[in-house]
Specification:
By secondary structure, the protein is mainly α. It contains five helices and no strands. The chain is about 50% helix and about 0% strand.
């Protein structure tokens, strides 16, 4: 997901450890859609659904992206010593590894 070079990294900074309330989730989604609507050149008055705009721009929902990053973060080893051992950490499988199986 990329809104240019600066928007997404700024918006998602340390999202791996966020615990968002429902209100905060709505605000993050609103920010994403505000940016995507500007990129697409449409306003809310055009009455185009959010999912249609995301699909046209090839973007995923920001909450899905946050959840995926949190899953990856949850499955990470705590330090480099664990990396040297063959350890199955919490039975997690990294998304990159699912393509090979």
């Amino acid at each position: 997901m990329n809104f240019g070079n600066g928007s997404m990294p700024s918006l998602l900074y340390s999202c791996e450890v966020w615990n968002l309330t429902k209100q905060q989730q709505l605000r993050v989604q609103a920010i994403q859609m505000s940016v995507l609507r500007r990129i697409q050149g449409v306003s809310r008055m055009d009455r185009i659904r959010n999912k249609d705009i995301r699909q046209q721009l090839g973007q995923e929902g920001i909450l899905d992206l946050i959840r995926r990053r949190q899953e990856i973060w949850k499955c990470r080893p705590f330090n480099s010593l664990v990396l040297d051992k063959e350890v199955e950490w919490l039975n997690c499988q990294h998304p990159r590894d699912t393509h090979n199986s």
